[in-house]
């Protein structure tokens, strides 16, 4: 079967991004965004989604990390959408690790004291449900960011900007939830790992519907 690959170049006055993606890869990656913690998140995304990803970004980090993080989400979403093509034969829906209870559709990813959940649907309709940091007060987020051990350029709340950018351009439903957690590094990492596992499940081919669209609409 032909491997699903894409290349994206996205240049603006704020960022210059190049991406090479292989959805049928081995989890290999080469990441350089200028933000070490964000590089770590994208590296583990490639590993746990089992995709090959080369992503390089030259952004206006002297201003803020916001443009770099958001635009990388946008470009990665574009790359995934392009690689998926017409989506024939894919499972379409994906969740995190396989649930231990066969009677529930919920799936979870633990990261030390944190527990995160992610479900994705490559439906063609972009919609992000974010129930991660909403339960934290502004003071709690501020205190966490002051004490976080991640790169100081990656603020605690930037994860949502990445996922929103991805959702818009991949044109998917993305539901991300932090059920509980305290340490900022662990919270963001749990969300990225859950996201990776969900994408891994949804992009796979289902041999039962080879060549068919997983939709009654006739188009995704």
Salient structural properties:
single chain, 220 residues, alpha+beta, Ribosomal Protein S5, domain 2, five-stranded mixed sheet, four-stranded mixed sheet, 5 helices, 35% helix, globular
Describe this entry's structure for a reader.
The protein has 220 residues and is α+β, with helices and mostly antiparallel strands. It has a single domain, classed as Imidazole glycerol phosphate dehydratase, domain 1 (Ribosomal Protein S5, domain 2), CATH 3.30.230.40. 35% of the residues lie in helices and 25% in strands. The chain has 5 helices and 9 strands; from the N terminus they run βββαβαββββααβα. The protein has helices at 36-49, 66-84, 138-147, 158-170, 184-203; strands at 5-11, 15-22, 29-32, 52-59, 93-95, 109-111, 114-121, 127-131, 173-180. Strands 5, 6, 7, 8 and 9 form a 5-stranded mixed sheet that branches. Strands 1-2-4-3 form a 4-stranded mixed sheet, covered by helices on one side. The two termini are 21 Å apart.
Write the layout of secondary structure elements.
Layout: E1 5-11, E2 15-22, E3 29-32, H1 36-49, E4 52-59, H2 66-84, E5 93-95, E6 109-111, E7 114-121, E8 127-131, H3 138-147, H4 158-170, E9 173-180, H5 184-203
Parallel strand pairs: 3-4, 8-9
Antiparallel strand pairs: 1-2, 2-4, 5-7, 6-7, 7-9
How would you describe the shape?
globular
What is the residue-averaged pLDDT? Answer: 85
Give the SSE order as H and E letters.
EEEHEHEEEEHHEH
Helical segment tally? 5
Q: Spans with pLDDT under 50 lasting ≥5 residues?
A: 99-106
CATH-assigned fold name: Ribosomal Protein S5, domain 2
Radius of gyration: 17 Å
What is the CATH homology-level superfamily? Imidazole glycerol phosphate dehydratase, domain 1
How far apart the termini lie comes to: 21 Å
Major sheet description = 5 strands, mixed
Approximate strand percentage: 15-25%
């Amino acid at each position: 079967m032909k491997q699903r690959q894409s290349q994206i170049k996205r240049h603006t006055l704020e960022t210059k991004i190049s991406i090479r993606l292989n959805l049928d890869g081995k989890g290999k990656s080469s990441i350089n965004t200028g933000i070490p913690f964000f590089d770590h998140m994208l590296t583990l995304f490639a590993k746990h989604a089992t995709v090959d990803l080369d992503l390089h970004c030259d952004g206006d980090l002297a201003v803020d990390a916001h443009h770099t993080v958001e635009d990388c989400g946008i470009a990665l979403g574009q790359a995934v959408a392009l690689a998926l093509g017409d989506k024939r034969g894919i499972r379409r829906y994906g969740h995190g690790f396989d649930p231990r209870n066969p009677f529930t559709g919920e799936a979870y990813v633990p990261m030390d004291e944190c527990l995160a959940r992610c479900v994705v649907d490559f439906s063609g309709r972009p919609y992000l449900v974010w129930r991660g940091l909403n339960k934290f007060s502004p003071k709690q987020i501020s205190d966490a960011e002051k004490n976080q051990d991640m790169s100081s350029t990656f603020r605690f709340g930037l994860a949502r900007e990445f996922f929103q950018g991805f959702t818009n351009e991949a044109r998917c439903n993305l539901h991300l939830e932090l059920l509980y957690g305290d340490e900022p590094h662990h919270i963001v990492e749990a969300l990225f790992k859950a996201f990776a596992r969900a994408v891994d499940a949804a992009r796979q081919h289902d041999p039962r519907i080879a060549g068919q669209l997983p939709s009654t609409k006739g188009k995704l």
